[in-house]
Design a protein that fits this description.
This protein is mostly beta strands. About 15% of the residues lie in helices and about 45% in strands. Strands 1, 2, 3, 4, 5 and 6 form a 6-stranded antiparallel beta sheet that branches.
Length: about 130
Amino acid sequence: MCANLPKILRISALCFLSIIFSFGMKNPVAWAGPPFMTDDPEPVEYLHGELYIASQWARDKDMGTAATLPHFDINYGIAPDVQLTTSIPIAYSAPRDSSAQYGIGDIEAGVKYRFIHEDNDSGWASGQRFSHS
């Protein structure tokens, strides 16, 4: 199918795809998985729980390496529309000019309460999260 296209069109398409690919590779890191930058809009169901095990890693040539190896994210529905949540990272830090450290990092604890339920007319579903770390 590509052989039927004029040569100039194939070259133009190849250049365009190369440019798009190079811009996409400028920041090849993808953030997926806990700890999320945003939070779920609704709490865990009553008497149900969630456990996420994840890891993060960052390296800077001037500062060194920092990571969570692993990172636990635990959520539990303690009442209808109420969720307890905690994040427990096992932190690793290896500054460039110091010795490496490994241990429990900053623990986050919080409560999520859903105070607006979905309405069949508007489709709204909202909640509020309070946390302390």
